[in-house]
Amino acid sequence: MSTAGPLALTIGEPAGIAGEITLKAWATAQTDKSIPPFVVLADADWLEAQGRQLRFAVPLKLVTSADQALGEFYGALPVIPIALPGPPEFGKPDPANARSVLRSIDEAVRLTSRGATSAVVTNPIHKATMYAGGFKFPGHTEYLAELCKPASPVMMLAIEGLRVVLATVHLPLAKAVAALTTSAIEAAARAAHMALVRDFGIANPRLAVAALNPHAGEDGALGTEERDIIAPAIAKLKEESINASGPYPADTLFHPRARERYDAAICMYHDQALIPLKTLDFAGGVNVTLGLPIVRTSPDHGTALDIAGHGKADPTSLIASLRLAFAMAQKRAQA
To answer: What is the tens place of the pLDDT at every residue in 245-273?
Structure first.
């Protein structure tokens, strides 16, 4: 994978805050060179209108290639045009835009897969609107897996000082417990191990596997999943020379001294992972899709329709996603 090209940033939900945080990220990058160059695959008229309405005008430059985008980034926001059928209205998603949102993702994956761009960073999409527009996948992750076959995607969330990897993802809690299997834990841990070696440059990653039940089940008194499901997964991982340990009670896994003892925590369900991460850094979380042949990151927040158009959107998570995507792509190229 080449890291010579810019990052490919997708349009996201055009009625949400994607346009605002994109403009703010570019403006910040003009003076903060730790933010890598990117090209946005979007409707230039939409971005220009966003800037006018938010009184945050940014010069735009239509480009036809990633190489051209790299040359234009310091001075104008490079845009590979993906036309929208009509001007979006802040806070009011339109299913008619779903096809353009998908085209943006498709083109970002295509450019990155052939090495023209170094990684994909996706702005948030509005799933209900995408479904109404004919989208047939649960979300970004599953669609990217379809585009990048073969792929076995696993979700990681990252902030400074903490990485969490999910064995089960967007399921009601009762269904998450039912869906928890030894093989799911093994798959999440293997993906985490590979990514930490290849994309983060950690030679011998330490994986801390969380328990499911209070006090790690209290030897079966508070649940048997630790004994029957989680411990066998850890044993299998150790047989494969993966440095996994646990299961650890979740209520003692995320304090500062505990976090010093591992490079990623393998968590059993969504909120077990997301509550500590968002408590530590609500604005700066990055969603990373492991198990793809390309690097993909995304802000760890939604479309924020309620504040769209108010000028209040915080680009911190997008900026963190851009930085992490580029750093991962560099490590992968070196590996």
So the answer is: 999 999 999 999 999 999 999 999 999 99
